[in-house]
Amino acid sequence: MGLPFPYEWQIGWRYTRAGRTGRRNGFISFISGVSMLGIALGVAALIIVLSVMNGFQKEVRDRMLSVIPHIEVFSADGNALADWQAVAQAARTNPAVIGASPFIATQVLVSRGETMRGAIVRGISPAEEATVTTLGAQLKDTAFATLQPGQWNIVLGVELARALGVGLGDKVTVVAPSGQVTPAGVVPRLKQFTLTGTFEAGHFEYDSGLALVHVDDAARLFRLEGPTGVQLKVADVQAARAVAGSLIDRLPGGLMVRDWTRTNRHWYDAVQIEKRMMTIILTLIVAVAAFNLVSTLVMTVTDKRADIAILRTLGASPASVMGIFVVQGALAGIIGTLSGVGLGLLVALNIDVIVPAIERALGVAFLPGSIYLINKMPSQPLASDIVPIALISLALAFAATLYPSWRASRVNPAQALRYE
C-alpha cells in the first residue's frame, strides 16, 4: 500500500517538528522556532501598521470628502458655464455619477474689523449640494437653509469664525480678488454678509479656510453670469479618477475635469508614498526573519549528514534530498506566515480595545483629543494588503530554503558515512 504523501514531505515534516531531544537537536529546534516567530512577528507588524495607515487615510479622506465633491467639472477659462444643467445631464449619462450641483469657487479675504483671513468662498445651491456632499446633506435644513439668494448670508468654517471672532448674526466683509475700475482708480469690491451658521468638518484646512454662500450671491459678487462649474458625486469614491477620465469624452469641449485625488494631490501622493515606503521597510524585517531559515537549514543539513547518506544509498535521488529540506523550510515559512496573519488580524480588528487598554495601563494618551482631531486609533485591514504580504513572506521563506537544500543534495554518501 502506497504512502498517502510523498516520502520527501513526510521526512521534511518530521524534521520540522523533531529535534526536541539532545543538546544539538534542541538548539536547532530553538533556532527554527525563533525563525518562525520572527516571520510571524514581521508579518503581524506589517499587517497592523498598514491597517492603521489605512484607517487614518480613510478617516481623513472621509472628513475631507464630507466638504468637497468627488469630481469637479469647470470652464477652462474660468468664465461661467453657458448651461450648467446640460453639463450635469451629460455627466449623469455615466451610471457611476449619482449627484450633481453647480458651484462658484474663488479665493477672497474675509474680514471683521481689523482681523482679516484668507479663505475660499464657494457659491453653492443648497438643494443640489445635499446630493453631492455629506456636509450639504447634514446642514440642508439648518445652516444651508438660510442661504437664500439676495439675502447675503454666509456660513463659515468653525475655525475661521473663531479666528475672526464672530458669532451668529454678526457681519463679515468679503473682499473680492478683482476690484472695479473707477475714475479714482481700481477700488476693491467689498460686500457685507451676515453670518447665519458654522460647520465643523473635522478637517482643519476646510474648517479654517472655507466660506459658503448662495451661488447667485457669489455670481453677483464676482460679476459672473452663472456657475463656473459643476460638482459631481460618484458611487465609489475610489473610482473617482477613472470616472473623471471617462467623462472627458462625454462632456462638451472647453471643460476641465478634476477628481478629488488631483484636487488634494499633495496629500494623496504623500499618503501613497508613505505607505509604499513603510511596506518596503517592514518587508525587509520579514526578509531578515525569513532568511534566518538559512542558518536553521544549514545546521540541520550538517546534523543530518548521516541520514542523508543512508537515504542516498537506499536510492534517493539528489532532487528528493533537496525536496526534503525545501519542505522543511517551506513548512516553517507557512507556519510563521499563517501565525503572523492571524496575530496581525487579531490586533488590527481589535485595536480599538487594545490601545485604550494600553493607555490605561501606562497612564498615557497616544491621541489626546485636545491636540488631534482623531482621538482613537483607526484600523482598516484590507485583503489587497494582507494577501500580498502573505505571498511575499511565503516567497521569501521558500527562496531561503534553496541554497541549504541544494547543499544537502550534494552530500557525498561515502564521505558522510566514513566516521559513522
The biggest beta sheet reads: 6 strands, mixed, barrel
Give the ordered list of helices and strands. Answer: HHEHEEHHEHEEEEHEHEHEHHHHHHH
Helicity range of the residues? 40-55%
Secondary structural class: alpha+beta
Shape: elongated
Uncertain parts: 19-23
Q: From the alpha-carbon coordinates, what is the Rg to the nearest angstrom?
A: 32 Å
Count up the domains.
Answer: 2
Please give the number of β-strands.
11
Strand content: 15-25%
* Strand order, largest beta sheet: 2-3-9-4-8-5
Terminal Cα span: 33 Å
Q: How many DSSP H or I helices?
A: 16
Mean pLDDT: 84
Can you tell me about this structure?
There is one protein chain. This protein has 420 residues and is α+β, with helices and mostly antiparallel strands. The chain has two domains: 7-62 and 268-417, no CATH class; 69-263, no CATH class. The chain has 16 helices and eleven strands. It has helices spanning 7-17, 23-65, 84-92, 126-129, 134-139, 158-164, 204-207, 215-221, 240-247, 260-263, 265-303, 305-313, 318-349, 351-362, 383-409, 413-417, and strands at 71-75, 97-112, 115-124, 153-157, 171-175, 180-182, 185-187, 190-199, 210-214, 229-234, 255-259. The strands form two sheets. Strands 2-3-9-4-8-5 form a six-stranded mixed beta barrel. The protein has a two-stranded antiparallel ribbon with strand order 6-7. A hairpin with a 2-residue loop joins strand 2 (97-112) and strand 3 (115-124). Helix 2 crosses helix 13. The longest helix is centred in the first third of the chain and has 43 residues, at 23-65. The radius of gyration is 32 Å and the shape is elongated. The chain starts with 6 loop residues before the first helix and ends with a helix. 39% of the residues are buried.
